[in-house]
Amino acid sequence: MTRFLWGSATAAYQCEGAWDEDGKGKSSWDVFCHSDLNNVNPVTGDVASDHYHRYEEDIRMMAEGGQNAYRFSIAWSRVVPDGTGDVNEAALEHYSRVVDTCLAHGVEPLVTLYHYDLPQTLFAAGGWENRATIDAFARYATVCFDSLGDRVSHWMTINEPGYETLCSYAIGNYPPNVRDLGRRWHAMYNLMLASASAVTAFREGGYPGRIGLVSDSYPVHTLENTPEFEQAAHFADLFQNRCVNDTAILGAFPAEFMEKIEADGTDMSFIHEGDESVLRSGTIDFLGLNVYDRFLVKPYTTGETDLRANNTGDASGENRVVVKDWFEMDEDPTTEKNPWGMEIYPAAMYEILVELRDRYSNIPVIITENGVGYRDVVENGEIHDSYRIDYLRGFIDEMQRAIGAGCDVQGYLVWSTMDLYSWINGYEKRYGLVHVDFDTLERTPKDSFVWYANHISSQGAQR
Ligand code: BG6
User: Fold this and answer.
1) Catalytic residue among 164, 343, 355, 369
2) Is 160 noted as a catalytic residue in this protein?
3) Which ligand 1 atom sits nearest the alpha carbon of residue 342?
4) Which fold is adopted by the domain 5-217+235-289+344-459?
């Protein structure tokens, strides 16, 4: 029996630091964080958790905590500093050492090729709205497969084409800070083509192992059961989940989704002849699933499209989703939420897994992220994050219920391995199993780290 993967996850820009070391080029996030546009929490990932220098300590701690899997991302701007040109051998050597360190500790490395940080040269030339980025990505992916493919058996092309483009082109809080759904669909379309192109390159290269894509997916709920609410839920499912999942798993965007965005007035000229066959031949082997909460919606009533995210974690922030002619986000005032307004709803895990089982012929799934952000407090050198333990226990129980219901779940990774840069939320919003003092960079396991280690050891070889 293949062992179940129990581990945790990070992403390059959020934890590595070393933003301009060893030949690294600038990424879109390096430039954004150093600009005036970064005005909500004006901090950078220049140092972050210093994982670039401290990866050995971090991986050793994971192994000590019983974890047998580590998902991390490669910074494209380290490996190909300008996105398309020369390959930086020092970067490949670095990631090779990270992979070897994992293997030496009995930790399976799961590698994400792209997690939000685009080389700045490509970003400046139009980023994901420029089709040249698709070919550049496939080439960069091949460089990584060639370098690490003998030791890495789980690859993920893109992290969250849905959430990234939502933030970058609808909420406007990630670079390029645009609020225009038509541009969002254009960028997402190209991201899906890029993922499929990398999958094809992986297959054609005959590399061992499996390749997937990471999708943030949500069970969609309504507080009422009228036909109007059901219609809103259907539209929200297309908007949040199926535009990515159908495309990556079945090899085509849902026809209804394409018709609906066209009816919105989207300029569909981003569709080129031959794209359909690229998507069809680039379907994934497994789905990486990021599960945080459910999505509660109600019918669209009036007004223009308007999306906002609470990035302050207090009353000055607002979570708002109004998508004209599609749906609006609803709110249940009775449920528990974290300070950023994220609902604590563990059954989301069971529900989304069962939905995916039924919709996609029980495709293998690895939970590539699950976790919760809080402002943790250090008391006498200890971090008593019982709220995180409760959250993780609830979601893991629901995952195990889904496995009992026949869902093919093959791994579970906590977000995040240690505290890191929470994008536009800065450093106050902590997700780690391990606390990082961002002044001294000292690591301290939290209570949740110990709880997770005990949970893993209580499972034995079982799930
Ligand atoms: C996921 C991302 O969407 O959520 C991570 O893949 C991110 O990179 C995590 O950090 C939590 O979101 P946030 O915005 O609270 O850091």
Assistant:
1) 369
2) yes
3) 15
4) TIM Barrel (3.20.20)
Contact 30/45 with Cβ under 8 angstroms? yes
Q: What is the pLDDT of residues 202-256, one digit of tens each?
A: 999 999 999 999 999 999 999 999 999 999 999 999 999 999 999 999 999 999 9
* This prediction's pTM: 0.98
For ligand 1, say whether the CB of 425 is within 6 Å of any of its atoms.
yes
If you measure from the C-alpha of residue 302 to the centroid of ligand 1, how many angstroms do you get, rounded to a whole number?
A: 30
Biggest alpha carbon distance in the chain?
63
Pocket test for ligand 1, best of 114, 423, 425, 431 (most atoms within 8 A of CB): 423
Q: How many angstroms separate the CA atoms of 77 and 143, rounded?
A: 13
Beta bridge partners, 155, equal 111, 211
3-state class (DSSP) for residue 434: strand
CA 233 to chain centre: 23
User: Which residue's CA is minimally distant from atom 12 of ligand 1?
Assistant: 422
Q: Where do the structural domains in the chain lie, given as residue ranges? A: 5-217+235-289+344-459
Q: Decide: residue 331, CB within 10 A, 0-12 exposed, 13-18 middle, 19+ buried.
A: middle
Average pLDDT of the residues in 292-319: 96
Q: Are 129 and 191 in contact (CB under 8 A)?
A: no
Record the tokens describing residue 277, joined without a space: 């066959």
> How many CB atoms sit inside 10 A of residue 116's CB?
23
Q: Which of 344, 369, 388, 428 to mutate to test the pocket of ligand 1 (most atoms within 8 A of CB)?
A: 369
Burial of 359 (0-12, 13-18, 19+ CB in 10 A): middle
| Average pLDDT, integer, range 366-393 | 98
Does ligand 1 come within 6 angstroms of the Cβ of 422?
A: yes
Residues 6+ apart with CB under 8 A from 46: 17, 19, 30, 33
Q: What DSSP letter does each residue of 210-229 carry, written as one string?
A: EEEEEEE---EE-SS-SHHH
CA of 422 to the centre of ligand 1 (A): 6
Tell me, using a 6 A CB cutoff, whether residue 160 lines ligand 1: yes
List residues bridging with 213 in a β-sheet. Answer: 287
Looking at the DSSP assignment, which residues form a beta bridge with residue 69?
7, 108
Taking the CA of residue 309 as reference, the ligand 1 atom at the shortest distance is 14
Could you confirm whether 382 is annotated as catalytic?
no
> Ligand 1: which residue has its CA nearest to atom 11?
422
Backbone angles phi, psi at 328, to 5 degrees: -130, 155
Nearest residue (CA) to ligand 1, atom 13: 422
Residue type, 190: N
346 half-sphere exposure, CB direction, 13 A CA radius? 16
Confidence band, pLDDT 50/70/90 cuts, at residue 418: very high
**Distance (Å, whole) CA 72 – CA 250:** 26
